Here is the input.
Amino acid sequence: MRPVSKSRSPSAARRLSSFEELEASLVDMQKEYAKAVAAGDRARATACRRAVIQAKDRARLISRNPKVDQEKRKQKEEMVEVMLVWLGESRYFRAWVAFERMSAFDAGKGCRISDVGFREP
Here is the structure.
């Protein structure tokens, strides 16, 4: 999932093999989505959301595939959850990541997202 030039539609072409890539992709896509909304470009905003939905659907398929390693399936399942947060309210995504980190820190334990190194907003 990466925003591309205005002449091309957003795509989920970038492989999402790690949480770092997922976070970077979602942050970039949120910026692209916000620009489209601010410019009144509904088609572009819809294309951004569609790209995230397609990436989520692909991750969900992988998470349910019994031929895929169990650890990879669990990772993709968690990625689906993260993308659902973005789809629910993308403008708060970075705040949500920070909150997850703080919650895990306060609880004295790691959390899925902080364990994999999501960047600070």
Remarks:
- Residues 42-63 form the longest helix (22 residues).
